Amino acid sequence: MNRMSRLGLTFVVAVVWSSVGFSQVATPPPLRGWGQIVDPNRDCQVRQDGRRLTIGIPGKTHDLNPEAGGMTAPRVLRDVEGDFITQVKVSGKLRPAENQTVEQFFPYQGAGLLLWQDERNYVRLERAAIHRQEGIIQYVNFEMRRDGERLGSPSGQLPDQDLYVRVERRGNRICGAVSLDGEAWHYLKPIPGTFARRIKVGVVAVNTSTDRFNPVYQELEIYKKQSDQGP
What we know:
With 231 residues, the chain is mainly beta. The protein has a single domain (19-228), classed as Sandwich (Jelly Rolls). The protein has no helices and 18 strands. Strands 1, 3, 4, 8, 13, 14, 15, 16 and 18 form a 9-stranded antiparallel beta sheet that branches. Strands 2-7-17-9-10-11-12 form a 7-stranded antiparallel beta sheet, with no helix packed on it. The model is unreliable at 1-25 (pLDDT under 50).
């Protein structure tokens, strides 16, 4: 479903901590363990409490869609190089209202992981909900932009509950996976894609509903290939 009708590897773990909140700050300091806040509209609230991060988004367009919705979704990103695995738990209610903020799409709310090179090259894996005529549908949105072209991987509907999402970069492949408990993972069909060696990774929240959206992220981890760690 898409939105238009809307390693024998050794790993290290990036530990997330500290407690601080930010609201409508032009250039806030990075959140240690999470990264730099990017809030193009300067109207979202990002609050960190230990390994828990909350993003508050008003009921206005905050999208990552160059065709219509623009690139104003709030995100928190940090640099990473080489092959890696990143995962996070996404909590909170996804209840997009009946009224959309982007005419071409049904009302949508999504929260999850973002791999970011630039506005034409990135990957999203989100716990998502869309409000259609038959009601609210909960599902996984897994998509890539490669030189501006949208590529996606099919995904089924989900129960309305907390969800772990995981993204892996293995050479020229991007793998996505989801889990209800953080232990048993269901892998989606990989998407082929070549990115720069150094990119940004973190969390993103998207809202094209007139309802406010407050996703919660917990237990962010980045596992990195041992040979890419440097001295």
